Amino acid sequence: MDAILEAAALVLEAGGFESYTTNHIAERAGVSIGSLYQYFPNKDAVTVALIEREASNLANRLAALDQDDWKITLLKMIEIISEHEQRRPRLSRLLDSEEVRLKAEGVQRESADRIRVAIIDLLNVVGTFPLPTAVIASDLMAITRSLSDLGPVEAARDSSVLARRLEWAVLGYLAMAAE
Question: What is the domain partition of the chain in residue ranges?
Fold first, then answer.
């Protein structure tokens, strides 16, 4: 399954959805089309599994952070998100568009919930806010996703540029929310 998912990612990155077929995925993975269909009933199922893999990888990295110093942890979270987005920017954008088309937002719900819990835990260390920490965590997730998705990712291949923009937005939001 891992080989098929990585092959799907490579096919998407190389040719976009025009070349994204189960035959191309199987060929790239070095498996028969029958083997692909043994694991996935269709191309959309491969895509949903790929969305889930990427979301889970990000959630695992964020949830594993040590939260001794909230600001260092927050900056590390931002760095991880930036690296994740910049590691494979074309794949990230294509999967984001497919997530909506396939109504696969629920697939990412478990990973998003794990990320939200990590952020809430971090916010509880920071102090008190006029809004519930769950609301602030959701806002921060929306801010980072928006900047990551809409920002000039291709123009700035260096993840530190995106990280810096995310730092400004997140730290600015938290500073205003703490007032």
Answer: 1-41, 52-178
Contact 5, 95 (CB under 8 A): no
Rounded-to-integer distance, Cα 51 and Cα 77, Å:
20
Gap between the Cα atoms of 124 and 70, Å rounded: 9
Taking only the tens place, the pLDDT of each residue in 97-153 is 888 778 766 666 778 888 889 899 889 888 788 899 999 999 999 998 888 876 544
pLDDT in tens, 54-78: 988 998 998 888 877 888 999 999 9
pTM of the model: 0.81
- State the residue for tokens 């696969």: 104
Q: Which amino acid is at 177?
A: A
CATH code linked to domain 1-41: 1.10.10.60
